[in-house]
Design goal:
single chain, 399 residues, mainly beta, Immunoglobulin-like, 2 domains, seven-stranded mixed beta sheet, 4 helices, 37% strand
Length: 399
């Protein structure tokens, strides 16, 4: 019996030693939040600080101390950080985000390849609600009645989120586009960290003389992105986009269609593309207004059109300033390996679909509250918190 006990103890010792030797290495990261708006007083300990692993779909979330400091002990790997909070009483959102970095046991390597101490400072942006928001985006595609893949029923719905007594928004000369790279899995964003953002080949402008297309609080404007027609006889989505308010249509784009009564958007070419591509998996969508006006912006090609960094040939991309963006939503296929295209001032994070492509699902805003019969949707500049993925499309079309 004694011999058996000695053997068991020896085996347990070997197992313990093996577990010790195979214990994974641990990397430590400290995040320091800094509020860049001294006139605003907030409790930094109310923020969620999320450390997202970029090699797999898991993350770590902690609350910082009152001075905005928080530490993580995790496996080495690729990560990014998002800090966010929403204060309902004041309807103020606070957000901050980092670029992707490599965390090692001795430090971190930033997006530009520079080795640094494992201390990451994130500047927080304070955002007040914007009246005009993207309420719903349907881009995932559906199926034809015969079972083939179908993508022509894509739409984007804008909404006046000002609430009761809020201001009327005029859509005239506002612009709608998607951001380059088209997909979140491209590998890298050549302009990461820049003050400007690349437009994906072309953008669409709402027509009007400045007071033609008002949008009152609680009203929607649905934009059919490819075909403003009745899809109920074509696709399982059954979307009747012949009742959309606007349609992205140009006779120069062969795939685009528009029904009578739908107002055509104005196409602005900004590259060498022959069609407007809305990614079926991961578009980054924005509404913007050039501060100098669209005509003057288009006339400044030397200032706003450029090759990718390090290139002198190939495709040129027009850029827009971050400050021109009124609202945006970044959609990704999954958090792992997803690149960030929109700055944290526009969207601190991203929303991602769990359903497969051609599922007929969309992303839609979470309702915050209803007052005097007018809905007000959540708008924290953080799509992970603001949008519900895998939703059933429910565009607010014309009667």
């Amino acid at each position: 019996m004694k011999r058996i006990c000695q053997i068991l103890c020896f085996l347990l010792l070997l197992v313990a030693q093996a577990c010790y030797e195979e214990r994974p290495s641990v990397a430590t990261l400290t995040v320091q939040l800094r509020l860049d708006s001294p006139e605003v007083s907030i409790d930094l300990s109310q923020l969620n600080v999320r450390l997202q692993n970029k090699n797999a779909d898991f993350s770590y979330t902690e609350h910082p101390s009152a001075d905005g400091r928080v530490s993580f002990s995790v496996q080495p790997g690729k990560y990014d950080v998002v800090a966010s909070a929403w204060f309902p009483a004041t309807r103020i959102a606070v957000n901050g985000a980092s670029e992707e970095f490599l965390l090692t046991t001795t430090g971190l390597i930033d997006a530009h390849g520079s080795a640094k101490e494992p201390l990451l400072e994130i500047v927080l942006n304070v955002a007040v609600p914007n009246p005009l928001i993207i309420r719903e985006a349907y881009y995932h595609g559906s199926a034809t009645l015969e079972g083939a893949n179908y993508t022509k029923d894509t739409y984007i719905e804008l909404y006046n989120n000002a609430g009761p007594g809020g201001q009327t928004v005029y859509l005239d000369s506002l612009c709608l586009t998607t951001i380059y790279p088209y997909n979140s899995t491209t590998g890298n964003n050549a302009w990461a960290g820049s003050d400007t953002i690349a437009v994906a080949q072309m953008y669409w402008m709402f027509p009007g003389d400045g007071h033609t297309y008002p949008l009152a609080p609680g009203e929607s404007a649905v934009v059919a992105c490819i075909a403003a027609v009745d899809h109920s006889g074509r696709a399982t989505s059954g979307l009747k986009l012949n009742r959309a308010h606007f349609g992205c249509w140009s006779e120069t784009l062969p795939r685009h269609e528009i029904a009578a009564g739908v107002v055509p958007m104005v196409l602005n070419m900004t590259g060498q593309g022959t069609q407007w591509a809305v990614s079926i998996s991961s578009p980054a969508i924005v509404i913007f207004r050039p501060e100098m006006g669209v005509a003057a912006y288009q006339a400044q090609a030397a200032l706003w059109e450029r090759y990718e960094p390090g290139k002198t040939s190939g495709t040129k991309y027009w850029h827009i300033a971050k400050s021109w963006i009124l609202d945006g939503v970044e959609c990704v296929d999954s958090p792992s390996s997803a690149i960030k295209r929109l700055p944290g001032t526009v969207d601190a994070s991203y929303v991602w679909m769990r359903s497969g492509h051609y599922s007929g699902k969309c992303v839609t805003r979470s309702l915050d509250f209803t007052e005097d019969g007018i809905e007000v949707f959540k708008d924290t500049n953080n799509s992970d918190a603001d949008f519900i993925p895998d939703s059933i499309p429910n565009p607010r079309l014309k009667p």
